[in-house]
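WARN retry 2 of 3 for item q-0093 after timeout on previous attempt; input resubmitted unchanged.
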Amino acid sequence: MKKTQSKSEKEIKETIIDSLIYSPLFDGLIENELKIVADHMDYSEIETGYILFREGDRGDSVCFVLEGVVDIIKESSIGGEVVIASLPKGRSIGEMSVIDNFPRSATAKARRETTLLTLTQKNFDEILKNHPEIGIKILKGISRLLSLNLRKTSSRLADYLLPVS
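OK item q-0093 returned
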């Protein structure tokens, strides 16, 4: 269950901008560009155990962890659920969903009380339309992040494969 917001609008906007400065996804954005992005983001405080989205749900937003931890959970092929990652402050979830319309590849659940920023696909599309230079910088940030994640996954996969003889 989402909690009510405990900060004023001004405090929330300042928190959003301060958080975006340190997110690698927004590298290269200057202060006035960060303010534009902040105007397109939603701020929420969620309780322990809250499910942000489930594996298979339609993806339409990327979330940024401001405080707390979000567990990423996959259904195991032998039954049950497996936590494949725990994302702390500063990490993002669902970057692919602002680009494609594929279902979520995992479930995201708050391990403890967590504060999130959310950029919906609709708001991202609005940034691309009205501020294309900012949209391009964000797309480059998403590309860098996805590339890094793919490299990490490839390295982990290689640890499980048999050597080529």
